[in-house]
Specification:
This protein is about 40% helix and about 10% strand. By secondary structure, the protein is α+β, with helices and mostly antiparallel strands. Bound molecules: iron/sulfur cluster (SF4).
Length: about 450
């Protein structure tokens, strides 16, 4: 199963052998190192044997590994593990399978129930794709998860990697996988130079992965490669001293483990500034359902407005209040600010609290094109519908803000005693802080966190 590895402890806990100092990042490797070579039969055999023996001894006990023959359970795990660490996925996985134990149960469910269970896991597009894939499996395959790579890859949200993982792990087909972990292991094992995202190098790595996968135990072999990348051959400080491939690893021999794979060129994240409004009525908060497509598509959200390039947050706030309150006079007080770093975006939310009960009583009077519904919910009921982690943080910030106000002594209600959350929001408002010039559209395809 693929996962975002992060830093992992050395599972064997053994001492790490000192490596030769790596050359500087700018140094070029010999030209023959720019492509992975197909190893000879003996080398392949030793690679497989060592890796499988290591896997048998060191594999982690993960919930999806306890159901190796359950194609549906494996499919759910593969979707959840995309871009997400094992530790985060585990709790969501068990809960999701309890609620949707079969492909039919998910296919029948409304999207809102699916997003609610996915709430907080991020990358909500995966949930929508999994839901659609379940419907297609019921409609086109009689409820049976297909077993071939070609059929699997025709389902929504399934690419060559996920198809190969399901086909090999569940159905024992000799299919390769190549995710970030496997790619790192293979690049280091052969000390291959070059941009790991370049199509030519990607194709050669797929060819190498295909040559390595054995006819016997292809699923275990693929999992052993991914496991090695996640726990030993980690992005930084790989545990070469306990690695089963240490004797044949070219990067280790050449002292290149710290510079391979070559770092990808990072895109500067686009700045996105949003004002969010907490509208309260009778102990409930107003939630708005986001359009089905785009960032946080289909999730429930506090009313928000994107701050246009060069605009002050307070201008966007006024626009939002006017739209919601249908022209009634209402004021938004700053509560605080949070920033969320998504894959390609840095999103800053400034939360305001609408004051004035009459204004709140008239809401919602306006409706933005694409908004698909409104709902008044108690803050602790937000877990029943799908909300993003950002909205969970905003609700928690509002809660802290309310508690402080409730217990504050009168003399403490001075600007100098305001909370850090509030000061951040107020400072931005008072300084008339303008939005950075980023993309302000909230729609369009995106990985959403
Ligand atoms: S020896 Fe080191 S660099 Fe090579 S595959 Fe093993 S952990 Fe990775």
């Amino acid at each position: 199963m693929s996962e975002n590895p992060g830093r992992s402890p050395d599972p064997a806990g053994g001492p790490r052998r000192r490596q030769k100092p790596a050359p500087s990042d700018g140094r070029r490797l010999p030209a023959r190192r720019s492509r992975p070579e197909r190893p000879g039969t003996g080398r392949i055999r030793r690679f497989r044997a060592r890796l499988l023996a290591w896997y048998d001894a060191h594999r982690r006990d993960l919930p999806w590994r306890r159901r190796p023959d359950d194609a549906w359970a494996q499919l759910v795990a593969e979707f959840m593990l995309q871009q997400t660490q094992v530790a985060t996925v585990t709790a969501y996985y068990e809960r999701f399978l309890r609620r949707f134990p079969t492909v039919e149960s998910l296919a029948r469910a409304p999207q809102e129930a699916v997003l609610a269970l996915w709430s907080g896991l991020g990358y909500y597009r995966r949930a929508r794709m999994l839901h659609e894939a379940a419907r297609r499996i019921v409609r086109e395959h009689g409820g049976e998860v297909p077993s071939t790579v070609d059929e699997l890859a025709r389902l929504p949200g399934i690419g060559r990697y996920t198809a190969g993982a399901i086909a090999s792990i569940v159905f024992g087909r000799r299919e390769p996988v190549l995710d970030g972990n496997v790619r790192r292991v293979l690049i280091r094992w052969q000390a291959t130079d070059g941009d790991p995202d370049a199509p030519d190098l990607r194709k050669r790595l797929w060819d190498l992965a295909e040559a390595l996968v054995p006819r016997r135990r292809p699923g275990d072999f693929n999992q052993s490669l991914m496991e090695l990348g996640a726990t030993v051959c980690t992005p930084r400080a790989p545990g070469c001293g306990v690695c089963p491939l240490r004797r044949s690893c070219a990067a280790r021999r050449l002292g290149l483990t710290e510079i391979l794979p070559r770092a990808k060129r990072r895109r500067t994240p686009e700045a996105l500034n949003i004002v969010a409004l907490a509208v309260e009525r009778d102990g409930r908060l107003l939630f708005v359902r986001r359009p089905a497509r785009g960032l946080w598509g289909g999730l429930w959200d506090l009313p928000t407005e994107a701050v246009a390039c060069g605009e002050r947050p307070t201008q966007a706030l006024r626009r939002l209040v006017r739209r919601l309150a249908g022209g009634r006079r209402a004021v938004g007080r700053p509560v605080g600010r949070i920033t969320r770093l998504l894959t390609h975006r840095k999103v800053t939310f400034r939360l305001y609290r609408l004051t004035g009960t009459p204004a709140a009583r008239g809401i919602p009077a306006g409706r933005r094109a694409g908004d698909t519904g409104y709902r008044w919910l108690k803050p602790d009921e937000s877990g029943r519908v799908g909300v993003s982690r950002a909205v969970q943080s905003l609700i928690a910030m509002l809660d802290r803000h309310r508690s402080r106000r409730r217990f504050r002594r009168p003399e403490a209600d001075r600007p100098g005693r305001r909370s850090r959350d509030q000061l951040q929001g107020a400072a931005a408002e008072e300084a008339g802080e303008e939005s950075g010039c980023g993309t302000v559209s909230l729609t369009g395809t995106s990985t959403d966190g």
